[in-house]
Amino acid sequence: MLRFRCAAASHVGLVRTNNEDSGYAGAYLLLVADGVGGAAAGEVASASTTYVTSSVSMISDDDPLAVLAQAVEFAHHHVRDGVEADPQRDGMSTTLTAVLGNGERFGLVHVGDSRGYLWRDGALTPITRDHSLMQMLLDSGELRPEDAEDFPYRSVIARSINQIEDPEPDLVLLDLRCGDRILLASDGLTDIVPDDLLGPTVAMPDLDAAVDELVSLALAAGGRDNVTCILGEVVEGDLIHPRGRMIGAAADPHNLIDPAAVRIDRVGGRRTAKLQAVSTGADPWGHTGATA
């Protein structure tokens, strides 16, 4: 059975006062979500999307791409319900980049401009393509690569998980093998740290030291945004409990729209996920589902 050994780190950066990034690192799921800067309640959108995706991943004995597609759909409806419950959240949205395994196969879901990389045989290769205005202009030839660094709208994304539009995720099967490493990161890292510095850091023997060094590189480059790094190495081992670690905004339960929104049932011997309406009653942390 294939799974991840993993490490994760998130930092508010040197400029912003709150962390709108969320992350999750577990044996079968790696995830980063970046609440879109400037939008209302970005930390709520990223944390709640992380929560929904990690919950739905508990049914990962199914096709990982089908599970990820359902997670994106659930997250979209959950964000929409969260805005309806609290109109002050109007406009909140988030990116989502995640890799899910079921012990044999791995799937990637990608919406927005948080990035994924594969480290294999000494080379770091992107496995995502930004859904951003800048990437669209680069693809069309309207923006030259040498002008991209100073492009004033580099943070404008073309796709996100939000309350209005149905998400259009990239869904890709990944052919991973033992020893491969996956790096998922918010743009607080990838906008200011070049890929030629990322590769040697991802290759460090100690995963925890590697993610700490990645954050340090972002801070040394100015730390102008939140920075979140998830690093997983594919290993072989027995099936273990899928529960992982939440970081960033997702580590604070007050950022969740409703921590009781997803229920995992067993039907006919198979696990299924159900998205429930946003609760208006008290939750386990003593606040209502309509406030965050």
UniProtKB/TrEMBL annotation:
> What SMART domains has UniProt attached to this entry?
PP2C_SIG, PP2Cc
- Alphabetized CDD domains for the sequence: PP2Cc
Q: InterPro entries given for it?
A: PPM-type-like_dom_sf, PPM-type_phosphatase-like_dom
Q: Where is the PPM-type phosphatase domain?
A: 5-234
Q: Which SUPFAM superfamilies match?
A: PP2C-like
- Note the Gene3D superfamilies from the entry: PPM-type phosphatase domain
How is this protein named in the record?
Serine/threonine protein phosphatase PrpC
Q: Which organism is it from?
A: Microlunatus soli
